[in-house]
Structure formats: C-alpha cells, structure tokens
Amino acid sequence: MSNFNVPKREEVSSNNQALFDNLEKAVGFVPNLYATYAHSENALGNYLTFSNAKTSLTAKQKEVVNLAVSQVNECIYCLSAHTAIGKLNGFTDDQILELRSGSASFDTKLDALAKLARNITENRGATDAAVLENFFEAGWTKENLIDTIVLVGDKTISNYIHSTTKVPVDFPLAQPLEATV
Predict the structure, then answer these.
(1) Chain centroid to CA 128: how far?
(2) Which of 97, 140, 166, 174 could lock 80 by a disulfide, CB 3.0 to 4.6 Å apart?
(3) For residues 102 and 118, what is the distance between their CA atoms, to the nearest angstrom?
C-alpha cells in the first residue's frame, strides 16, 4: 500500500488544475499516475508535452513499445493502462501478452519493434547489434529508431514514478505475465 497520496484537483496549482480539466475531457478521468505528476508545478505539463509530441510511430506502434518497456520495468500501473489502450488500438488479449514478452509472431514488423524496445530497456540502451539489424531489415528507418528510443525514455519515466510512489492502479489490473504462460 502506498503512503504517497494522489492529489485531488483542489490540491494542485491552477496550471495543473487546467491540465486535470483537459485530461478529464480527453480521457474521461485523471489517471492517478498523471495526478501524481502534479505534485510538481511543471512535471505534468512537461510530461504531457513530451508524451504527446509528434513521432514517426503510429498509436498502435507506440503501444507495442509501451507494453514491452513496462513489462521489463515491471510496472503494473503502466501494464494495466497500456493493456486497456492496446485493446483500444485493436490488439487482442493474446497479442498484448505476447507484446509484453517482447515479441509479436502475428506481425513481422511489430515483432522487430517489440524486440528492439525490450532489448533497449533490458540493456539500458546498449542495444544488441543483431536486434538492431533485424529492426532495420523489417523495414524500420533511422527516424523510427530514434523515435522508439525517445518513447522508451518516455515510458521509463512513468514506470519509475509508479515504482517509487506505488499509487493505486485505476485501470483494470493486468495479469502477471508468468501467470498467463
């Protein structure tokens, strides 16, 4: 159980209140993890700008990275959130579990992306040459590589915030990967 509170709208700055209002309109609620960023005057706005920046990756491709990274970092909050978002982007339950394990037998290009995201995260950026070569052979570009690395960093920030604060998960809870094998 976390002793780290999730701030309510009235407990945050006026700038963060405006961000809460925007999240409420866009998502339907303010996710606990985003609310936790609002303990800082600037972190929530900075993170949302970073997270929503233009990228060469589609929303579905971003979920491949988010799921693989969150699994390596063992972040139950992000695994739960991105399982729900992955479903909204057309992935099945079985595909989501496979993506979490760092592969995608159902799509060669997504498989290379999942393997890369997992490898970057596990090796803290010291990517295996064979994994990188496979990524390019699957049709990805150098732009896609850089955008993937940026996304790994983006997701790692949220993984670390949850791992440190342990705020309650407010998405349907993702099952542990080993329980599904």
Answers:
(1) 22
(2) 174
(3) 6
Across 143-171, average pLDDT: 98
Q: What is the chain's Cα-based Rg?
A: 16
| Tens digit of each residue's pLDDT (9 = 90 or more) over 42-98 | 999 999 999 999 999 999 999 999 999 999 999 999 999 999 999 999 999 999 999
DSSP codes, 119-144: HHHHTTT---HHHHHHHHHTT--HHH
* Location of structure tokens 């990275």: 65
DSSP per position, 27-59: HSS--HHHHHHTTSTTHHHHHHHHHTS--SS-H
State residue 120 phi and psi, 5-degree precision. -60, -45
pLDDT for 2: 54
d(CA 81, CA 156): 14
pTM: 0.94
Residue 125's region, left for phi above 0, alpha for psi from -120 to 50, else beta, is left
Among the listed residues 58, 85, 49, the one whose alpha carbon sits nearest the alpha carbon of residue 157: 49
